[in-house]
């Protein structure tokens, strides 16, 4: 192929800064989206995000055609990070300590993220990225529970299906009225974890199917 002409070279150079600017704007929007949804929940608008990012709303709409698209991108990142916490917890030798550490870390993130709690509660945002991230979290939770059970540190009858209801119990504490996120949830997580730990003489758990 021949060499570029002098006219082509400046044109190519101009495209690169434009692409960099577009990518920087996308990162600014995602960062602003995370902060706005965390503070205001899923009722926040694209206008709110644009204002927080210091960008025109048209720039936001060019990157994300609606709030659903932005929320999917934001919370896919959030859930991917929670999946990474679950994966990293598996490096802990003590299976029960690994499970407890993951629950504390994941719920600690939710405590300061209103949008994430609403997503956990209502599942109002969907998408392939979110579905994949949820499956990964579930898979890692199954591994954490299985290892704690195999080491004999998890009480009989507890399985991976109990993790989501436990998170919902803590979410109920987080939903208590208050101007700022309450740290009271940590108290109840300790109580729940003590109930999950294998101890001599524990009352057998009722079969979950018996309630149906």
Summary keywords:
single chain; 212 residues; mainly alpha; Arc Repressor Mutant, subunit A; Tetracycline Repressor, domain 2; 2 domains; 9 helices; 68% helix; 0% strand; elongated; TetR/AcrR family transcriptional regulator; Tet_transcr_reg_TetR-rel_C_sf; TetR_SbtR-like_C; transcription regulation; DNA-binding
Shape summary: elongated
| Residues in helix, % | 55-70%
| Class computed from helices, strands and strand pairing | mainly alpha
Tell me, rounded to a whole number, the average pLDDT. 89
* Tally of individual helices: 9
CATH architecture of the largest domain: Orthogonal Bundle
What's the level 1 CATH class of the largest domain? Mainly Alpha
How much β-strand is present in the residues? Answer: under 5%
**What is the CATH topology assignment of the largest domain?**
Tetracycline Repressor, domain 2
Distance between the termini: 73 Å
Question: Order of helices and strands, N to C?
Answer: HHHHHHHHH
Domains (count): 2
Q: Unreliable stretches, pLDDT < 50, 5 or more residues? A: none
Keywords: DNA-binding, Transcription, Transcription regulation
Organism: Streptomyces flavofungini
Domain HTH tetR-type: 23-82
Protein name: TetR/AcrR family transcriptional regulator
